[in-house]
What does this fold into?
Amino acid sequence: MAVPTTQSELHQRILDSLNEAVLMFDSGLKLVYANPAAEMLLGASIRQVLGHSFVELVMPREPVFDQLQEAIRSNHPFSKHEQVITLFDGKELTVDFTVNILPSPFGTEVLIEIIPIDRLLRISRDDALVAQQAVTQELLRGLAHEIKNPLGGLRGAAQLLERELHSEDQKEYTRVIINEADRLQKLVNRLLGPSGMPKSQGVNIHEVLEYVRKIVTRDKQTNIKIHRDYDPSIPDIKGDPDLLIQAVLNIVKNAYEAMGKSGNLTLRTRVIRKFTIGHQQYRIAMKLSIIDDGPGIPEDLKDKIFFPMVTGRAEGTGLGLSIAQRLVHQHGGLLEVESSPGCTAFSIILPLEA
It folds into this structure.
């Protein structure tokens, strides 16, 4: 590597070696310089973007152009946090960025440093989900213990009472008690979900998806079409096939219920690289997306969709997604959701390698 011979070359070397994206604009907010990290961020080379305006390259969701103009006039820097921007290649990111004004003999220059924080926000959100799941599970176990014991006594007393009764009309009431006790027992068991750790073995995720597809397509009362978009290069994952089937089936059934009698459901698998789950980064992982074109998740439910007993349907129990999330976590993975009217995507992310 050549040694810098001038101060200007040294400054250039420093900027080029930074991991943060650095963009330099002139007083008219036309791009005059971008370091390699900025080229990667923009998804374009310096030759492609040179001379483009700020709003063409970095389009913030909140208007900041007037603030930039004021900063140039007043020579005052400013920062923005957790800003959603649209980049040159159309990709949306959440970033922190800092604007510095640099007077020079060539005129005022605007230096903007951009730090993507999507990954940090996602890690924080995932940590909160895991913590929420752990607390919820402890509450449910305590609640189940308090319900099961008196429920068993209630059912036993109803059975003893039924033996003493001679009238079929009177026995009808004790049978209602017994049946309702059994129904509540099943509900408690569903709240708790499967117990123990998954039985780990090699699982072909596409066999899991095909099994689920066959189950749901037996219902001839709907016109829902299932589209398969599989990546055949995905290797077997380590997991419990029965629990994975249950997790996927719960999500697919939830999508069916959201769409009603007709719609489109896509089952998609992809390999993703350098993905962080919790605080562990994996070199390679699998992303299984279940996408429907239903009405989307109501805004008031988005932040609590994985809570047990939370449902948007009058007849729903609100247990399917909570159990699916727990099963995915037991496999060391994540269950995420993105939803808007016409497109809801639940994504199961599982590590392929440690």
User: Anything to note?
Assistant: The first strand starts at residue 21 and ends at 26. The mean pLDDT is 81.
